[in-house]
Amino acid sequence: MMKPKYCVRLFLFSMLFTVPSHPVDAVESLTVGQAVKTALERNPDLLAARQELEVARGREVKAQLFNRFNPSVNGQVWNRNNPGSGNVTDSQVLLSQEVEVAGQRGLRREAATRNVTQVEAQIKDRERLITGQVMRAFFQALTLEKRLELRKEIEKLNLRIRDASEARFKAGVAPIMESNLAEIRYGQSRKETFVAEALFQNALLDLRRLLGWEPDRSIELSGQLRNSPKAVPLSDLLQRAQGQRPDLMAAKREVARVEATMDLTRRLIVPNPTFQGFYQTETEGPGGASKMVGGGISIPFPLFDRKQGELVTQGGELNRSRHQVIAVTRNIEREVETAFQAYQAARQSVEVFEAEVLDRIDENFRFMEIAYREGKIGLLQLIVVQDGLITAQLSYVDSLGQFRAAETNLAQAVGGQP
């Protein structure tokens, strides 16, 4: 791998490696790490998704209950005609309680716990995707900021060329057409600066939205667009992705959840007995009453409904979840390989620029303006050379931005740092 050159002399490129200083009290400084941390705390989509975990924990709390059936109390009072004493009042109190006796409670707790772990993995996957979105948005905004700064410097350069053309015209060494062309060139560069400014501000809006910030909150991007490219073996990346991708964990935990749910459903076929106890009084004559205390048990007979439909449905869910594990595994392999190839291409592009292009751009920019001021080249020659150099400058900035995006995509595909 070619060693990157850090001693780039051109003033236009010095801005690519460090962020220019701004008044500390003017705007809020933001690094990519701070942006990710803020998004994980405040992104509204992520906050909404995390509520699914509270729903799952609520089901787990219910599964922890000692008995999911509440006791039932039934009281009755009635009048009857007693031949010996006339109308008398009798009463009865009935208490009943359904009880699970086949271990359903333990299986229900197991299913609820597995559901919580599966939702936790899903939330982790949402965090992985949000992290990737924020990092891409940050580096996109940083790239557009560097393009804007380049456009501003190009505008200043065209202003100096316009002034030099006007002086050459007044000195009688250049025609009026050359002066007019320089003026048009300067106006065009001003327009491109305005466009670059609008694109940069739109990128900041996207970043603020991901962070959950107000649209008018001031941001100063702090960090380097340039990052040291490094070669990474594809086999190691694939192995790491298989072990740490949360969407694969979620798919595997879904299999375990459905299996636990099927075990519970099979156990629910066993009927729950309902125990009953009663206390009853009966008036037998004047001043006399009999009291009775007793109990009983009722057990439903599972003759028709033996959870056949539920088991068929859950069997389909189990097969689907097992196929989903295979599908997610294949998708991870494809994502990692695709992101790896894009990363390699972006890394090599940056290395070529830094090894073969930057120094030549530096020299040509200095020679070009000096040669024009000394009358060694005409304005048309200057424009041709300048267009090529500007294109190379912007292409280098874009290459850095594409490299950071490819680096982010590869980290997202692996499930962590590449």
Automatic annotation (TrEMBL):
InterPro entries: MdtP/NodT-like, OMP_efflux. It comes from the Bacteria. Residues 109-167 form a coiled coil. Keywords: Coiled coil, Signal. Residues 1-23 form the signal peptide. Belongs to the outer membrane factor (OMF) (TC 1.B.17) family. This is TolC family protein. It comes from Candidatus Nitronereus thalassa.
